[in-house]
Amino acid sequence: MTRFYVDAWDPAYGASFEAAGGGGPAAPSSAQVDVGVELPATDWQAIDARRDVLAPDVVLLVDGVRRIDASVWTAEDDGGSFPGIAASYAAGVVRCDLERGAAELAGAQVGRGLFTASPSAQDVVAGQIRYPVHRVGGTGELSKLPAAVQAPLTALEVAVSDAARTDGDLLVVDGPLRSRRHLPRTLGYIKTQHSQYLDARLTAVVTGLAPGQRCPLFRLETAWGGYSWYLRLPVAGGAPWAGIVRMECSAELTPAEAIELADLALVTLPRFASTPYKDPRAPQNLIPIAGLERRLRGLLGDARLLHRVLTAAARGIRR
């Protein structure tokens, strides 16, 4: 019988990696990769946590959530129409004090917007609720509008991060760094693996990692790239990619500084790993992040009520 594995993630959340026929991330990346940042490719091997590296006293974990409250269509003076989405989004930061063993919400902000390519669209206001217009470029196809929410959401994440930072802390961003690469002592934390950056031999080093180990650093030679590496969180068996996350840090760092951050991540992040009975995306969805997501979704407001508010506002505009 062919051997198979069950992904620990609840199927409602997709999978922890997008698989190709070989069982790993599906899409080979076209990015140029320098795999010799830390070790020559011929010497690649699993790296254990260093005993002389201590976790920081304070770790900040940042995440954002977004929701489409309604799809809309405009009625232009020339008889045409443009699609749009009314979206709510929120960002927050959890401050984990490792000395005290305590975690608390250190800041959160909520934003809303009407995203459309319509040249005539105006802010939607209903009582105390406002959806400012975010005009997108191009033809503004409805299927592409949700991606337009990412830029203001990222800006919100940067704002809440800046307000919560202290000297010597470690900032972990849930997802790619994107425009946050300039932030000091900051890591991108990618839960789901979409692209294949390494050849088969080096990928075997990654899938052979034991919990609490990482692979050597490699560098993505692209405009959006930087230093990257994989580490495996605590996980009880499973598929070759079970419990593996990809980390990022800024390309502006020296190789020594990037390696220092990689070692710091290895002694810090496993303590936050979730367990299957607590989280359907265990172990990758870190415990503080899961709690933050629940809090932020609550801050977005009641989706049904907002849909009714938007519907009433649209009727008022048409009159």
Note the overall shape.
globular
List the total number of helices.
Answer: 5
Helix content: 10-25%
Structural class by helix and strand composition: alpha/beta
Biggest sheet: strands, sense, closure?
10 strands, mixed
- How much of the polypeptide forms β-strand, as a percent range? 25-35%
Average pLDDT for all residues: 88
- Could you give the order of the helices and strands? EEEEEEEEEHEEEHEEEEHHH
Number of strands: 16
User: Low-confidence spans: pLDDT under 50, at least 5 residues?
Assistant: 1-6, 19-23
Quickly describe the structure.
The protein has 5 helices and 16 strands.
Salient structural properties:
single chain, two-stranded parallel sheet, 319 residues, disordered N terminus, 10-stranded mixed β-sheet, alpha/beta, 16 strands
